[in-house]
Write a structure and sequence with these properties.
By secondary structure, this protein is of the alpha+beta class. The protein is built from 13 helices and 14 strands. Strands 3, 4, 5, 6, 7, 8 and 9 form a 7-stranded antiparallel beta sheet that branches.
């Protein structure tokens, strides 16, 4: 009996939601995490099934995911902020602090309403230690997300925002969206190559979301697999994270100094005169990744497309949309939607 107690003390249970979110954030498949952590594939699968493992193994997993064991084990929500915020309980902190391209730090949390049977996805932005001017500037950036969501509140491919507010007790700014049961496209891409039918649905969903944004005069600008959620119930792609969206025909809206490299972002995305063709570029790069099974080097898209069994019209559309020079890309999302809608992939 004493031996069993000793073994039990050496094992820990990792929170499955937090483990999945950490893998999601880094875009790691089970196989990739196994390699990075130096564990067996059975160990990773056991963790995802909620089974306990030795603490040393759990620590290896945390280090491979560039997080801490405390986060993966489900450390108290109050360790990073209030356990409740307005009418919501912070039931899980799903990620460590993430740095956005504009320097804002945020965490993603799983929230539950204190009175209603409602879940929510909360992003809390860290405004601590900022000057008044810095905080005001950051609030302007943060509010762009709920404003974009509000302008397209009934669109099936745009996240639905519930509320946004400043929490003076913790100096966090909260943006709360509806809870979408599913995972990011980044995690999906890390797991498998998409079939033609899956890729067609994905490309149409993303393009229709972009169409809705463009009709409202909004350029997504930094579209990538991390900012697209795939809903489990129907595999629908839903666009989110609009803090860096740009309003067409306005002046500079977000500081773009030292943006980190993003292989899905158009080269001109950080320019003041960026237009909707930047989103078309990102759309194509994501689509080629889904169809090809990996993301080709910039400029190698056509070579990758030649290896994919798709109609020539679809191949040409994706190739032109991924052109380095925006003058070579289609002028509107409507053009690419028409091509993808006409794509017959069988039953």
């Amino acid at each position: 009996m004493a031996k069993k107690r000793l073994q039990h003390g050496r094992t820990v249970e990792i929170n499955v939601d937090k483990l999945s979110a950490a893998m999601d954030h880094r875009g790691l498949s089970v196989e990739q995490l196994k390699e990075l952590a130096g564990v067996s594939i059975g160990t990773v699968n056991n963790l995802l099934a909620g089974k306990p493992v030795y603490r040393t193994t759990a620590t290896q997993i945390a280090e491979a995911l560039e997080t801490t064991l405390g986060v993966l084990m489900g450390a108290s929500a109050s360790s990073g902020g209030a356990a409740t915020v307005h009418e919501y309980l912070v039931s899980d902190v799903l990620t460590d602090w993430i740095a956005a391209s504009n320097g804002l730090r945020f965490q993603i949390c799983h929230l539950r309403h204190l009175e209603l049977d409602r879940q929510a996805r909360g992003k809390r932005f860290d405004l601590r230690q900022m000057t008044t001017d810095e905080e005001q500037r950051c609030r302007t950036w943060i509010k762009r997300h709920p404003n974009v969501c509000e302008s397209l509140q009934d669109h099936p491919n745009i996240a639905r925002n519930l509320t946004a507010f400043h929490d003076p007790a913790e100096s966090f700014y909260w943006v709360i969206d509806e809870w979408i049961e599913g995972e990011s496209l980044k995690r999906n891409l890390g797991r498998k190559q998409f079939s033609a039918a899956e890729a067609k649905g994905l490309l149409l969903d993303i393009a229709r979301g972009l169409q809705g944004l463009h009709e409202k005069g909004i350029i997504r600008r930094e579209l990538n697999p991390t900012t697209i959620l795939i809903r489990s119930s129907d595999r629908r792609a839903i666009l989110t994270e609009f803090e860096l969206a740009k309003l067409i025909d306005r002046g500079p809206t977000v500081s773009t100094d030292d943006w980190p490299v993003d292989p899905y972002r158009a080269g001109e995305a950080d320019a003041d005169d960026v237009d909707l063709r930047a989103d078309i570029y990102s759309w194509a790069r994501i689509g080629i990744h889904a169809l090809f099974g990996e993301l080709p080097e910039i400029g190698q898209e056509n070579s990758a497309l030649e290896q994919i069994a798709i109609p020539s019209l679809v191949r040409d559309c994706l190739g032109k949309s991924a052109a380095v020079f925006r003058s070579d890309r289609p002028n509107s999302v409507d053009e690419i939607i028409h091509v993808i809608e006409e794509w017959s992939v069988g039953s």
